[in-house]
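Thread: quick sanity check before group meeting

JM: Hey all, I'm pulling together slides for Thursday and realized we never actually wrote out the predicted structure for the chain we discussed last week. Dropping the sequence here so it's in one place. If anyone has concerns about the input, flag it before I start.
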Amino acid sequence: MIQKILIRYHTLKYLKPVQIYYRLFYFIRKRIYHPNFDFSAKNQVKGYPLSFFNFQSAFPTLSSDMKFCFLNKEYTFKENVDWNFKNYGKLWTYNLNYFDYLLQTGLDKKQGLALINDYCKNIANIKDGLEPYPISLRGINWIKFLSVNKITDTAIEYCLYLQYKQLEKNLEYHLLANHLLENAFSLLFAAYYFQDEAYYQKAKKILHKELNEQILDDGAHFELSPMYHQILLQRLLDAINLVQNNPWKSNELNGFMISKASLMLAWLKTMSWQNALFPLFNDAANGIAPGTSELMEYAAQLSIKTEAIKLNESGYRKFSSSKFEMIVDVGKIGPSYQPGHAHADTFNFELFANGKQIIVDTGTSTYEAGKQRLLERGTSAHNTVEMNGLNQSQIWASHRVGKRAKVKILEDIEKKCLAVHDGYKNIGIFHQRTFIQQNESKISIEDQIKGYNQYYTAIARIHLHPEVEYTIENKTFCLNNSIKIIFENAEDINVCNYFYAPEFNKLIEAKCIEVKFKSSLKTIIDFETIIYN
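JM (edit): ok, ran it. Output follows.
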């Protein structure tokens, strides 16, 4: 009981006052307020179809026989769609309610309209889909679909308007971060579609505040997930597309949003590998957001230019040569008041060489609370050092963090980064890690365990991509017949199995190198023998 109280205290103490206020306010109001979906006044609202450049097409998730596929799980509704479908977890239900599939290439217009009408018909009984986040995404998708297909329908427009009234009353100030930003982007679309000045002023105010706070000086989204970075970048590009192509308002938001988009594009380009994939740091999975190449092409259509940036405030650093790319994490786990997508992965890294992913983060396969979720967020699932089987930061539930590791960077120059974190201070230990690019062909990682506690077990892990082949000779690993990994001062080395999760609900068996050591460990990664095409 005391432990539960403490972990909740260490979680709640970081919240902003506005989050606490709205949590209490919404909790109380929920017991007395219920949304009113009265369609009797449907003729009082008018929507104005908008103009756009081509949007990025959505991933194909719906077939003509009503088979939906989200997160690598399929389900066919034989008759009517159950908008409250629960069998595959809440995130699948959310995706069903987002209506992204309205924008997939080749979707039949009649099928899209039928789904929208069915949703309006059943809206009074819908549950998860009427939460602010799915309303925000669905609203944008409906507006895009109606506009692109030049559809004017009074009943649909009023149904959409009622959803926006629900959103306006429930903006996610209790969560902030990407949720509130999505609310604001959606309100901006609603403002243009309904030519609503109040929506516009509210959206503009939130966008200015949140984009200034959430986009860091090196262009990263402050939740430090490359996947959410891509999702929000697409939404920002959509908003630029909106204001550039519709004259209802002057372009007062255009320059501001372009400056943020340019920064975000630069960060994403730096963080992406040569094959355009990105490291799976924090909550991240492939197949959810448009890829780096698609976003760069979309930005070019909107005449958005970008320049190279140096990774800085995000806490990520990149070492590279003609032979390899390595991205390391020496930053905090995320915004203190909203680390819901953070993992206990301080000093984690990924390695890309010879056109292939070599050392990888284990990824994210689920948001459902349980053993798998805790495992994937835990320290042992990342390429860093675990002490006494403990997590560096107290990850719990599905999206909660109690005590969290604090990082201090001691040296930060072009080819060297030295930092220490206090995630194990409760057991009298501090972990110091140094990344050094020795030359074009060699990187070293030096770990030191400092503190008064001499009774500990330190394990450094390296998770190999499933396609990597390896051999071992005299405690030296050779990967793909080209990359050598040497461990100095290792007490014991084992190879075990783990499950790599490049996408939601997709687990691939792969190998992990576990190195037990005392006091210090030096890991040398040598690319001298790599042969390039």
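AS: nice. The chain has a mean pLDDT of 95. The chain has twelve helices and 18 strands.
JM: adding both to the slides.
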